[in-house]
Design goal:
CATH class of the largest domain: Alpha Beta
Largest sheet: 6 strands, parallel
Helix content: 40-55%
Strand content: 15-25%
CATH architecture of the largest domain: 3-Layer(aba) Sandwich
Radius of gyration: 19 Å
Bound molecules: guanine
Distance between the termini: 43 Å
Number of domains: 2
Length: 290
């Protein structure tokens, strides 16, 4: 069994980006600039956005954090989006999800200029990705593809079962895994809450990608010997023993599944850190296309 070490791999990617930025600066060019919009003060969102901004500083990017009150109107938020779209000194930005219930998420995502949509959530980017055209690929699926590619995991002709059909992870990763390319060419099945006999499917899979959000759902009896296991789950489970009051759990019962797997991503330290590295990569690509 080999661990797909997202911490190590994301550090390597960050070093590559840092070097590129340093060379840009040596040539007198402006470094990439990423902005993050955070509405309200949800604990997990604050943590994610905080690490995104810190990572920007590390690689030498400019970064701007825009914090807005949770009771901001949709109209006001759309004004901020227009300003960001028109800011020539900004290469890309993200609007951290989820948004408060009174704001229509779809309307906000549609207002983002696709050229600055480094999250890859705009339909233009999603469509272009699906058609194998140049596009911003959503950071989590992009990170999974990088892990598979860099560890030279064989995906060609393999059966990949994706559990989850979210717009951010399940759906895009199912498209990418089936496309031509180094970590692609897989035969993909998308499973979801209505799937019958899920265990039968996962047991037939050479690669299982869990993006369900239910802690330790995938157990050893649900996977075949030698399977590749990718765990996208990050659920905060209350734990009084832990100083933070919670533990981060993936969708995979790691200890028992690891014994049968050929490759597996841990939680934390697997897909999570890759997501931030790929957001930086997308921002660098946005800068380079300007
Ligand atoms: N919320 C959870 N994951 C993400 C992400 O990748 N981008 C944004 N903007 N919000 C998120």
């Amino acid at each position: 069994m080999e661990i797909l070490d997202g911490k190590k791999t994301s550090n390597e990617i960050r070093e590559e980006i840092k070097e590129t930025v340093s060379a840009m600066k040596d040539l007198g060019k402006r470094p990439p600039h990423l902005a993050a919009v955070l509405v309200g003060s949800d604990g997990a969102s604050l943590t994610y956005v905080g690490s995104k901004v810190r990572s920007c500083e590390y690689v030498g990017f400019d970064s701007t954090l825009i914090r807005l009150e949770s009771n901001i109107s949709e109209e006001e938020l759309l004004k901020h989006i227009q300003d960001l779209n028109q800011d020539d000194n900004l290469d890309g930005y993200i609007v951290q999800l989820p948004l408060p219930k009174h704001i229509n998420e779809e309307k906000i995502l549609l207002a983002i200029d696709p050229k600055k949509d480094v999250d890859g959530f705009h339909p233009t980017n999603f469509g272009r990705m699906s058609l194998e055209l140049n596009a911003f690929i959503p950071a989590t699926p992009f990170g999974i593809m990088q892990l598979l590619e860099r560890y030279k995991v064989s995906t060609n002709g393999k059966h990949c079962v994706v559990v989850g059909r979210s717009h951010i992870v399940g759906r895009p990763i199912s498209i990418l895994m089936s496309q031509k390319g180094p970590a692609g060419n897989a035969t993909v099945t998308v499973a979801h809450s209505q799937t019958e006999n899920l265990e039968k499917l996962t047991r037939s899979a050479d690669i299982v990608i869990m993006a369900l959000g239910i802690p330790e759902y995938l157990t050893a009896d649900m996977v075949k010997e030698g399977a590749v296991i990718i765990d996208v789950g990050i659920t905060r489970v209350p734990d009084k023993e832990h100083p933070k009051g919670y533990l981060i759990k993936g969708d995979v019962a790691y200890e028992e599944v690891a014994k049968k797997a050929s490759f597996i991503t841990p939680v934390p330290g697997g897909v999570g850190p890759m997501t931030i590295a790929m957001l930086l990569q997308n921002t660098l690509l946005a800068r380079q296309s300007n």
